[in-house]
Design brief:
Elements (H helix, E strand, L loop, with lengths): L7 H15 L5 H6 L3 E8 L3 E2 L6 H12 L5 E4 L6 E2 L4 E8 H31 L6 E3 L9 H10 L13 E3 L1 H7 L2 H14 L7 E5 L2 H9 L4 E5 L3 H14 L2 E5 L7 H5 L5 E3 L2 H4 L6 E5 L7
Parallel strand pairs: 6-11, 7-8, 8-9, 9-10, 10-11
Antiparallel strand pairs: 1-5, 1-12, 2-4, 3-5
Helix pairs in contact: 1-3, 3-4, 4-5, 6-7, 8-9
């Protein structure tokens, strides 16, 4: 188990849905192989930051329970958040062949995806190291996978923004449009945030230019989100926000190669939706040992 606070209930729920989806009527191909003892190694094909191993045993257990096959064991050789190299063995799975065969795709789907999120996050975190800026995720996650994807962000060294709409107030462009301007939108948000049942909540305001920034600061925003601003304007936004006692988050097309220059403006946070919604899967495979032939 890693130290990144895995949401065990969320993992169990996701695995339950995935297993039900993958074998609603059992696994006839695996059943043909039978329950003879087998071993397989989970191996990294590319370098990256691994994530999802902490839930490997859950996958094996739920598959065995659903199919009524024997229990298999996941022996981990590294932990979520570890940097891994090509050819490195991440875990050795052992147990009945039919259990391992049925669990293979669900396990690989989750581990490769979550490791991709962790790897993408780690690349940005490394790029901004020493600047004082923190890489954060967004709510641009796959439905049903938010808790696990945000766990993967933490494994990659990033931090989570809101887990849900309930966690904080973020006044965006459509909220401003609905209320006719930045000031009335922020005023309404601040009034509600102060009396919210689980509050008081902080108020973050998205702005597109320096004029909107000044409105947001004048209305008492705690944090301003500067979206797709030129770097010179981001730096000026930081200067004005500091003078008003507010913090600054930058967003908008920030990918590896650009994060460092954005961080150099002095922003407190860099919000990157791509680390969850567009992270490529890390190439990880399951290498089987030869199962004893029949007869």
């Amino acid at each position: 188990m890693s130290g990144h606070d895995l949401d065990r209930a969320a993992w169990q729920e996701v695995v339950s849905r995935a297993v039900a989806e993958d074998m609603p009527g059992g696994d006839p191909t695996g059943a043909a192989v039978g329950s003879r003892p087998a071993r397989a190694s989970l191996v990294a094909r590319d370098a990256g930051t691994v994530c999802g191993l902490a839930g490997a045993q859950e996958v094996l257990d739920q598959v065995a329970s659903r199919l009524g096959t024997g229990r298999a064991r996941a022996g981990l050789s590294c932990a979520d958040g570890d940097r891994v190299l090509p050819g490195q063995v991440l875990a050795v799975l052992s147990g009945p062949a039919d259990t391992l065969l049925a669990a293979e795709r669900t396990l690989l789907n989750l581990v490769t995806h979550l490791s991709g999120v962790a790897t993408a996050t780690a690349a940005l975190v490394a790029e901004v190291e020493g600047t004082g800026a923190t890489v954060r995720d967004t709510r641009k996650t796959l439905p049903g996978l938010r808790a696990l994807e945000k766990y993967a962000v933490r494994c990659g060294g990033g931090r989570n923004h809101r887990m849900s709409l309930s966690d904080a107030v973020l006044v965006k462009d459509n909220h401003v449009a609905a209320l006719g301007g930045v000031r009335p939108a922020v005023a309404a948000a601040r009034s509600l945030a102060a009396t919210w049942p689980d509050g008081p909540l902080s108020v973050e305001v998205e702005v597109d230019d320096l004029a909107e920034l000044d409105e947001a600061l004048g209305a008492g925003a705690d944090l301003v989100l500067v979206d797709n601003m030129p770097l010179a304007q981001v730096a000026e936004a930081v200067r004005r926000a500091r003078a008003a006692g507010a913090r600054v988050e930058a967003s908008g097309g920030i990918r590896p190669g650009r994060a460092a220059e954005v961080a150099a403006t002095g922003v407190d946070f860099i919000a990157v939706g791509a680390i969850t919604h567009s992270a490529p899967a890390l190439d990880i495979g399951l290498d089987w040992e030869l199962v004893q032939p029949v007869g």
